[in-house]
Amino acid sequence: MTRPLCVMLVAAEASGDDRGARLARALRRRLGEGGVRFVGTGGVQLAREGLQSPFDIAELSIVGVFEGLLAYRRVMRRVADTAAVAVRERPDVAVLIDSWGFTIRVAKRLRQVAPHVPLVKYVGS
């Protein structure tokens, strides 16, 4: 028996959570219920698809430069938490959804801790 495809979905805001959930449903339809499993970060919608996020992505809802400066340490902790999921779960691919400020930092960290994992940037139109 082959193991299911492990897809890491990284969403840091509501719109990314929605896009990620739609992608998860499409992948499950294509690969079958036991053909794929999801790990990573997300919100309520991705949780409905079986993803267990290590933190509440509402913490990353940051508006404005000043607020961004104040939240820098928290964001970097969450980047580290997200990279730790990749180290622990060993995904076959990481899909970074929207939220460029967060996902670019995750991409850089993933290149350090899991350089073999292909990265896909997934954005809405």
SSE diagram, text form:
Layout: E1 5-11, H1 14-31, E2 36-41, H2 44-48, H3 65-89, E3 93-97, H4 100-113, E4 119-122
Parallel strand pairs: 1-2, 1-3, 3-4
Helix pairs in contact: 3-4
Key features?
alpha/beta; four-stranded parallel beta sheet; 125 residues
- The separation of the N and C termini measures 38 Å
Number of helices: 4
The number of E-state strands comes to 4
Total separate domains:
1
Q: What would the CATH topology be?
A: Rossmann fold
Task: Write out the CATH superfamily name.
Answer: Glycogen Phosphorylase B
Strand order of the largest sheet: 2-1-3-4
Radius of gyration: 14 Å
**Helicity level:** 40-55%
Please provide the ordered H/E string of secondary-structure elements.
Answer: EHEHHEHE
User: Could you tell me the mean pLDDT?
Assistant: 93
| Known CATH architecture | 3-Layer(aba) Sandwich
How big a fraction of the residues is strand? 15-25%
Shape: globular
Name of the CATH class: Alpha Beta
Main sheet properties: 4 strands, parallel
The low-pLDDT segments are none
Helical/strand content category: alpha/beta
